[in-house]
Amino acid sequence: MPQLRVLIAVKDEAEAKKLSAKLLQAGHLVIGRVWEAKDVLRLAFETQPDLVLLDPAIPDYGGLGVAQVIDDHRLAPIVFVTADCTRLSQLAGTGWLFSYLLVPYSDDDLYLAVEAAWSNFKRLLALEQENLRLKKTLESRKLVERAKGLLMEKKGFTEPEAYRYLQKLSMDTCRPLAAMARAVIEEFSVEPEKKAPK
């Protein structure tokens, strides 16, 4: 695991110092120790930490509000640090629980929680990227299918001819197939009387 830049947002100062010492011992860098929600968010946005250790009972917005903001912006994975196991059941239903640390804990518990949060966050980011790529691919295919349908309807092409026509347009203009499909759709969507002369 790489060296992580960690923000500690734990209300109990003694607990924050203990976490800080153990993280430094494990080779990580503690970039800040704060315990008020506004300070957590300010520091998280300013420093872009790799990981946030967060007490769900911090004042102001509370840990859940802070976690939601951090998660909405995909700033960092969160490890909730709490002695109250009933809080964990509330957190389990949220999307923000990458890992948790139940006080008291061992060194191994801390290191496993950090590693689990980091791994889960990286996996989530990879899945989101893959999801975005698949959405773009699907959108491109929909455009191509729609353009082929219009070419078949308006120009009397067969399906293979329509596809080859789009491919040729794409190659001739050095533009993506989806861009050419969009251009064909726009061309046929304009009413004849409003079409600009060629």
UniProtKB/TrEMBL annotation:
Residues 5-118 form the Response regulatory domain. This is Stage 0 sporulation protein A homolog. Residues 124-185 form the ANTAR domain. It holds the Pfam family ANTAR. Keywords: Phosphoprotein. May play the central regulatory role in sporulation. It may be an element of the effector pathway responsible for the activation of sporulation genes in response to nutritional stress. Spo0A may act in concert with spo0H (a sigma factor) to control the expression of some genes that are critical to the sporulation process. InterPro entries: ANTAR (IPR005561), CheY-like_superfamily (IPR011006), Sig_transdc_resp-reg_antiterm (IPR008327), Sig_transdc_resp-reg_receiver (IPR001789), WH-like_DNA-bd_sf (IPR036388). It comes from the Bacteria. One of its GO terms (molecular function) is RNA binding. Gene3D superfamilies: 3.40.50.2300, Winged helix-like DNA-binding domain superfamily/Winged helix DNA-binding domain (1.10.10.10). The modification 4-aspartylphosphate is found at D55. GO terms for biological process: phosphorelay signal transduction system.
